[in-house]
Amino acid sequence: MRSLRTYLSVAAVALAVSLAGCSSATTTGTTTSTATTSTQQVVTAATIEEDTHFDSDDLTWDTASEVAVTLSDGGSKVTSSNTSGVAVDGTTVTISAAGTYRLSGSLTDGKIVVAAGDSDTVRIILDGVELGNSTGSPFVVQSADEAIVYLQDGTTNTLTDASTYADQGDDAPNAALYSMADLTIAGPGSLSVNGKYKDGIVSKDGLVLASGNVTVDAADDGIRGKDYTALLDGTYTVTAGDDGVKSDNDTDEGRGWLLVSGGSLTVNAGDDGVKAYNTLTVSGGTVTVATSEEGLEAQHIVVSGGDTTITSNDDGVNAAGGSSSTSADTGMGGPGGGSQEAGDYTVDVSGGTLTINSEGDGLDSNGSATISGGTIVVNGPTNDGNGALDVNGDLTVTGGTVAAAGSAGMAVTPVTTSTQSGVQLTFNSSVAAGTPIHLVDSSGKVVATFVTTKTIASLVYSSSAISDGQTYTVYTGGSADAKAGLTTGSIDGAESMGTVTAGQYTQAQGPGGRR
Q: Which of 64, 218, 394, 468 could cysteine-pair with 195, CB 3.0–4.6 Å?
C-alpha cells in the first residue's frame, strides 16, 4: 500500500501530511500481479431485462384466468371454476402447469410445490397467506422456467420452515422459500420469511427482487441467488446468521453478480452483509449494512449511485475472493511497503454516497481502486494493523470527494497518475471523536470540515476544492454544522496545527512493509 507523509512539528502536536495530487511521488515498493482474470459482469437497471430472466410484462396478467386456491388446516381447496394445473393432496398443494394462481388462507403444517414444465412461467399471488411446515420447506419450486411470487396489495404473508429438515441431502431444499428455477418477487404487499433451518430465500438460478415489502430472518444466509441477485425496488430487511444477501455462482463465466439499482435494503449479518462472487454493483437505492463482519464483498465492487452505509467488525468494502488466484490480503500496508501482490480485484466508485464505519480496513482492494465521483466517508480502524484505505495495487483518484479517517500505521494515498489532489494528515496526538478538523486555504476560506466518529490518528482528504501546489492550514476544534462526516464549519476557537502544500510527497513506513 502506498502512503506518503510529510512530518511537521507544531507546538505540542506533530502533524504529518501526505498529499494525494498530481505532482511527482516516489515509492520504493513494487506491485506484482499473479492473478488469473475473469469476466467482470456489470449490469445496470437499463439492461436488466437483457441480462436476467425478468420482464416487466411478468407483472401483468389476465385476472379472469386466475386459479384460486384457499389454504386451510381443515382441507385446502380450489375455489375457482378454473381448476386446471393444480392439485390438492392433504396439506400439499402442487402446481404443475403455467398460469396464474391466487393463494389465500393458512396452513400450519403444509407445503406449496411447483412442479411445472421447463418452459412454463408460473405466477403465484400471495393474497394473505400464512404457511408453515414442521419437517422442511413450506414453499418449493422444483421445476419451471420462471416462478413469480406476487404479493397482493394490502396483504401480509408469512412463510416459516422447520428448525430441522427430514431431507438434508445435497440437493434438498434448505430455505423457507426455495426455487430451482429463476425466481422473481414482486408486488406491493408484505412478506415475512422465517428461515429457521438455514436460509430464508434461495434461487438456484437467477433471483430478481422487483418490489415488495419483505422481511427475512434466517439462521444462515438471508437471501441467496446463484447466477445473479438483483434488487430493483421495494423494501427488504434481512437478518441473517451468516451472509445477508448474496450471489454465489462460482463456476459459470459472467455469473455470480449482484445489483442494487433501487429500493431499500437493510442487512444485519453474522458474516458478510452483501456479497457476490463476481461483481457487486450499487447504482441506486439505499443500502444499509447495520451489522456485519465485512460489509460489501466481491471480486469487483462498483458504486455508481445510491446511498450506501456500512458498519463492519472487519473490512467495510472488500474486493477479494472471486476467481482471482490472489485472494488474500497480503497485509503489506504502508508506504515503501516492499513487494505487494495485486490480484484481479477492483473497487470503482463513480457516484453516490458511501459511508463506512469499520473496525478493519475501510475500503480494501486486493487489487486496484479507482475513485472518479461520488462521496466516500470512512471512519476506519483505530488499530495500526488496518487502514481506512488499503489497496494492494494502485489507488487512482480523478474526481469525487474522499474523507478517510483512522489509524496511521497503514494509511494509503493515491498514485501519481491521479488527476485530483488531496492531503493526508497524520497527528502525533490522537484526535478525539467528535472533533471538527478543518482545511483552510490561503484566503482564509474553510474548504473542508470533517468530524470523526472515532479517535483517529490520520485523515486522507481529496476533492476538487484542493488545488495542487496550494498551501492549506489545518485546524482542529472550532465548530461544525453536523455531528459526523463531511460538513461545513467555522474555525472560531479552533487550534492551528500547521500548514501543508497539496501535491508534495515524502515516504514513511507502515507495519508489514520493508524499506
A: 218
